[in-house]
Amino acid sequence: MTTTANGISTVSAKSPAKSTDAVNSHAENRTPQVSIVVPTYREAANIPELCERLFTGLAARNIDAELIVVDDNSRDGTIEAVAELALRFPIRIIVRETERGLSSAVVAGFKAVRANVLVCMDADLSHPPERVPDLVAPVAKGEVDFCVGSRYVEGAGIEEGWGALRALNSNIATWLARPLTDLRDPMAGFFCTTDSIFNRACEKGLTPLGYKIGLEIVVRGQIQRTREVAIQFSDRHAGTSKLGMRQQFEYLQQLAYLYAHRWPAAIVFGSVIFCAIIAGIAQFFV
Ligand SMILES: Nc1nc2c(ncn2[C@@H]2O[C@H](COP(=O)(O)OP(=O)(O)OP(=O)(O)O)[C@@H](O)[C@H]2O)c(=O)[nH]1
Ligand SMILES: [Mg+2]
């Protein structure tokens, strides 16, 4: 990783992300209470407003935080936007030149944090930045290990722009994850946890596949103490969605891995039954 002035770290295949390397030159020596990681791909238009609203909300609650943008070489002005904001806010950027993917970007960010309390959120302002302190509070107090900004608890809401198809898609995806966790919104990309929970999930084989890194941490980290904070989920502010068919298939693949992790015996049993049925059917054709 090479680091330049104004808080820019560049990661290439020859220099994979390492936690200490990623602390940029502009960062102060103090240790922040909270590290907020935002994965980005072509989100330059959203970063300034995200940053302003986030740090205004944090200052109002006296929370000392850092913001780490993990960008997959968008080349859309994200680096320049962060460099300008870094003059006023504790923000830095990690640019990955050879890797793509939301979950792996969040993992790279979590490995580069300086605080013990970690937050993950989207850049497109779908997640209200003002609510970060409400997610942080129960985790920082040690009341829970994982706090979600939830779309599916009482008091929460989703902006009307979601069409019926997207709502159905989200509901099916949520329902498929139901056996893995009690969370009403296990798909949320807006959550807070701790570095020790994240490290435990890594030790248990965390696989940064697809979009649902929160679910991955909850299941692999064997988290029991969770809380959901109702949020108003907005449509993306600017730019275009990066969620496509590929991410949907990756989600199914991720679910298969998580089910196998949680119930290895059931998966072996299911595979044997499946093979037996296939072998039985095959007999009719030979
Ligand atoms: N670093 C990185 N970030 C990504 C990648 N794909 C998506 N993101 C970021 O992850 C966050 C969520 O992506 P979105 O495109 O908003 O996905 P979504 O919220 O499901 O869909 P919309 O809100 O409808 O656009 C945003 O901050 C994206 O910029 C990626 O491949 N690499
Ligand atoms: Mg979004």
What are its keywords?
286 residues; Spore Coat Polysaccharide Biosynthesis Protein SpsA, Chain A; 9-stranded mixed sheet; two-stranded parallel sheet; 38% helix; binds magnesium ion
Description:
It contains nine helices and eleven strands. The protein has about 290 residues and is of the alpha/beta class. The chain has a single domain (about 1-240), classed as Spore Coat Polysaccharide Biosynthesis Protein SpsA, Chain A, CATH 3.90.550. The protein has a nine-stranded mixed sheet with strand order 1-2-5-4-3-6-9-7-10, sandwiched between helices. Magnesium ion (MG) binds near residues 122, 124, 126 and 236.
Tell me the layout of helices and strands:
Elements: E1 2-4, E2 8-11, E3 34-40, H1 47-60, E4 65-71, H2 78-85, E5 91-96, H3 102-110, E6 117-120, H4 132-140, E7 146-150, E8 157-158, H5 164-177, E9 191-194, H6 195-203, H7 213-220, E10 226-230, E11 232-233, H8 245-262, H9 264-283
Parallel strand pairs: 2-5, 3-4, 3-6, 4-5, 7-10, 8-11
Antiparallel strand pairs: 1-2, 6-9, 7-9
Helix pairs in contact: 6-7, 8-9
The structure holds guanosine-5'-triphosphate (GTP) and magnesium ion.
Magnesium ion (MG) binds at residues 122, 124, 126, 236.
